[in-house]
Amino acid sequence: MRFRIVAYQQQQVVTLALDAASFDDARAQARERGIDIVSIRQQWHWFAQRRRKEPPLDLVLFSQELRSLLEAGLSLIEALTTLSRKELNGTRRQLIDVLIRQLREGKPFSTALRAFPAIFPPLYIALAAASEQTGDLAGSLGRFIDYRTQMDQARKRVVSAAIYPALLLGVGGLVVVFLMTYVVPRFSRIYEEFGSNLPLMSRLLMEWGGLLDAYGLEILLGLVFFAMLATYLVRQTRHRQGVLHWLLGLKWLHGLRSRFRIYALARFFRTLGLLQREGIPITTALGLARELLDEDGRVALDHVVLDIRAGIALSGAMEKYDLAPPVAAELLKVGEKAGNVGEKMIRIADFYDEEIARWSEWFLKLFEPLLMLTIGLFIAFVVVLLYLPIFELAGTL
User: Fold this and answer.
1) Is pLDDT at 48 greater than 50 in this prediction?
2) Model-level pTM?
């Protein structure tokens, strides 16, 4: 990132530009140069940044490399220095250099990571803080790598399952748009002389074609505007969550809503299990995993935390507020008796992931042919309406 600094130097006010990983890093660089800062702000060059956008830090790769260096016997500062030297990306190198500088100032690793919340999630920081108590940062990094790998695999299964239906829907939609915006208007000109002799559905279709023929540009600009607005709103997290919550609230999507909840619970229990295995207190772990649930789940989780603080067992509290279905609740009870709740939570997440995989495979086997049939029938319906007047004319000859 580039920062614009207004400073007082050599008895005059000067303006400088610095490349730094954060505001704190920019201030530190200015202090090292003996500059008295008057004001500092980030420079935004939107078009230039889009052209020269550097890839963000790959957290899994960074953790793998750091873990390997730590296991080889290097200290944390030595390992980070090695990663900084091999890094060709300027922004990532600056970020690692800031971490090294804060470690040399005596700050814990977890505190240094907190300066970059957009790069290091709370879970990562919590694992680093837990490793500072045990002295096993390499082990914590290994468990985080396994966690992210499993989460990514579950996400990839869902995305891969949706690729073909999305492609089919896109191609079918383009064919329908071509028929409705190019073919229908041209047929409407041919059938103008038929007037009211056309069948009702054909007449409505021809009226749509005439409307497009007369106001096609205005309609196109309006559709483009609404598409851009919808894209902007969907990209905003709060709007995307609101739309998703509304869709899942529809009665005819009850089955999809239950599967989405199972998917969210799988991520929730996997995160809890990882934090429990690191020895993080259960109330703290629940707070870190809270964002993985929807709004209703967060409200229920707040009640669970209150019950736990009141002395109620975790399994009982989560079953009470419907965050642990019967099978999960029984596994949690077994884990509480055996003292391995974290392991049981991981097992619950594996069980739910397997259930989602089986359901996705079944759903796609049913959905794909139904989607093809629906698109084919709609296209055939439009084509029949277009040629129906010709058939009737031929029958009168």
Assistant:
1) no
2) 0.62
